[in-house]
Each structure stands twice: as C-alpha cells, then as structure tokens.
Design a protein that fits this description.
The protein is of the alpha/beta class and 375 residues long. The protein contains 14 helices and 10 strands. The chain has a 10-stranded mixed β-sheet with strand order 7-6-5-4-3-2-1-8-9-10. Helix 7 packs parallel to helix 8. The N terminus is likely disordered.
C-alpha cells in the first residue's frame, strides 16, 4: 500500500501537531477560534451524485449575498481562522461570488481551498483562481464517460468538460509555477469498483497531483444504504491496491484505509473536533458539522446564520459555546447520534485519546506538511 509517509500530503490523518498552541489553549478551557472552516456559498448544485450526503441535510435556505460573505471572511480573519475550504453541502461554483470570495479570503491572509465537480469553472478565470488557492479538489468518482454520468447525475459532455478543465489547470500550475495542489477525490462505494483503475489512470493522464479514494459517509439512519462490510471484500481491497500502484514521483494515489476499514464505527463517544474545525451550510447556517445541518437538529445544535448576523458575534455568543459543550458532554454520544465517519473524525480520534490520557500532546517536527491550515 502507498503511505502518506512517502509524500508531503496528509489525507488520512490530521495536522493538529502543527497547531499545538491552540490545542493547549483548548485543553486549558479557553474559547478558541477554529483553525479550519468548511463552508459553501450556496446549497444549490448542478449535479445529482448518487452518494450525495448534503441532500440529506436540508435546512432553511437563506441566500448568501456578497456583503454577508465578505463580513464572514473579515470576521474569520480577525478571530484567527487559518484556512477556509469552499466545500460543505453545495456546489460553490453555482454562486456568482465564487471567484471574488476566494480572492477576498486570500487578501485577508486566510488559506483558501475549494472542492468542486468542476463543470462550471471558467477557463478565463482559472489562473487567477489557482493563484489564490492552497488546493483545489475535483470531486470525481469515475474515469469513464458513461459511468461518470450515471454516478454523478450530470449532463452529457460534462465528463470531457471537467477533463479539459483539470488538464488546463495542471498546465497553468506548471507554466506559472503556482503553489497550489490539484487533487482528485473519489467517493468510493463498493459498486464503483470497476472505476478504480480507470480513474487512477485518468488522474495521471490529466496531470493531477493526487487521487484520494475515500469511504462514503451515511447518516445515522443509513439513508444512502452504504454497505460498509463490503469494503472488506478481498477483491475490492485488491483493486484499491492496484489503483495505488499507479502512483509516480509526481502523482500519488492514496486510499483512506483507516476509514475504509473502520466498518463505519467510532471509538469515541464525545465530539471534541468542531471548536477546531467547524462547518457552515450553503444556507449560511452555523452548526458543529454537516451531519447536524438538518432542520430536525435546529433546537439542540443550530447556532446562528451568517446571512443575518456577524460570525464573530455568533462565535462569541453563549449559544455557540453551549452547543460545543453539549456535543463534548456525556449528553451526546457520537456512536449513536451521528452518521458515519464525519468531517472531524481523525481530529476527534486524536483529541479523544488526548483527553483520555492515552497519548501525549503532539508537537509537529520538521517542515509542516502541505495544507497545514486544513487540519
């Protein structure tokens, strides 16, 4: 198996060792600013991916106008947020403010990143966008046109459009010597096993820096019907390993084995991760994580909305910290009350072991890894 020790990327782990001072502050009971925020500019999406988790978390939609988004970015910079990823529960390229938001965040001193299906990206905007990003991750779960359209629920021609965009992005990066990582992410379910090798080849062909193969998250009710036991099938694991063998000196194929082989289970019961990395919905909703965006969680877990008020005020509010304290208390059980393998999972594992006294506080050694502010 390819390991991340062979590369500068940490895609199946966490980077809290390089943020020791904030972990120490949290351990001392201080109210800390998030290091990383996951944020969408809209709930809308031009695709209908068969594995989409975001559509399971419908909440009251409020439009995010540019002034509200800029206020949020200014607040984030002021309180000490280090990285913002335009990912979350919508396709941010559907927003007319997408390119301006990336530029504004970067000008504020925040590392900016995005995850996108790529179909709406404009070629004339690629160079400016890439120059302001720490990384761009193309969400793609097939390496063949027909399977791509079937899995992603998109239009004919989108496969080639995205392929051209990734290839052009890779060329611009090299020609302009830009410090941006161009990655591909395959949300993998066992019925996509036929696409592992085609996609691994595709990533190398288009000049991507990496392809990460990850599990599919399901909600606490198992709505998507992900069969986690099938990840243990020997044939599937063999195909994943074969895909990893397409790695080269300049291109890494990395499977998130720790999650793929977890059977969708957690070892921790309390949730400690959101103070360090929190998610916002494309509706403007602030909640601990995407798994709690659904309207049914409003009373206990919804905190505020950046379309209506300042994020700094939300972060300073008693409500924010009441919710953070609730999910970190015995009142909350992540093994029963959450969906599977969440955004904060690896951070939660580390903080749980730290709180239990099973490990000592890590101190990052040597050169920081890539994307250090996306923990």
């Amino acid at each position: 198996m390819t390991t991340e020790k062979d590369s500068k990327l940490i895609l199946d782990g966490h980077k809290l060792a390089w943020h020791k001072e904030r972990v120490e502050a949290w351990m001392a009971g201080e109210r800390i600013a998030p290091i990383t925020m996951d944020f969408a500019l809209t709930r809308n999406c031009n695709y209908h991916c068969k594995y989409c988790y975001g559509m399971l978390q419908e909440n009251e939609r409020k439009p995010l106008h540019k002034d509200a988004i800029y206020r949020f970015l200014d607040d984030a910079a002021e309180i000490g947020v280090k990285g913002i990823g335009l990912v979350s529960d919508g396709e941010s390229t559907c927003s007319p403010h997408f390119y301006d938001v990336i530029k504004r965040g970067k000008e504020n001193g925040i590392d900016m990143a995005t995850g996108t299906n790529g179909a709406l990206l404009r070629e004339d905007k690629l160079e400016e966008m890439l120059s302001n990003l720490t990384y761009i991750r193309f969400n793609i779960s097939a390496g063949e046109p027909e399977r791509y359209r079937e899995i992603h629920g998109c239009k004919p021609g989108d496969f080639e459009k995205v392929k051209n965009t990734i290839t052009t992005s890779s060329r611009i990066k090299k020609e302009k010597n830009l410090d941006v990582t161009i990655g591909l992410q395959m949300v993998f379910t066992p019925d996509m096993v036929d696409q592992l090798i085609p996609l691994a080849k595709y990533g190398r062909e288009v000049g991507a820096d990496y392809l990460v193969i990850k599990h599919c998250s399901d909600d606490e009710q198992g709505t998507l019907g992900v069969k986690y036991d099938e990840y243990f099938d020997e044939r599937i694991q063999t195909e994943i390993q074969k895909a990893e063998e397409f790695s080269t000196e300049d291109y890494n194929v990395i499977a998130k084995w720790s999650k793929i082989l977890s059977d969708g289970k957690r070892k921790y019961t309390q949730c400690y991760g959101p103070p360090f990395m929190i998610q916002l919905s494309g509706s403007g909703l602030v909640a601990p994580c995407g798994m709690l965006f659904n309207e049914r969680y409003k009373e206990k877990f919804h905190i505020g909305n950046i379309a209506e008020e300042s994020f700094k005020q939300i972060w300073e509010s008693d409500r924010y910290w009441e919710v953070m304290d609730r999910i970190a208390s015995p009142e909350f059980n992540a093994q029963k009350d959450c969906g599977t393998l969440c955004f904060q999972h690896k951070v939660n594992e580390y903080l749980w072991d730290l709180k239990q006294g099973d490990i000592e506080l890590m101190d990052g050694k040597g050169k920081p890894p890539a994307h250090v502010n996306f923990i």
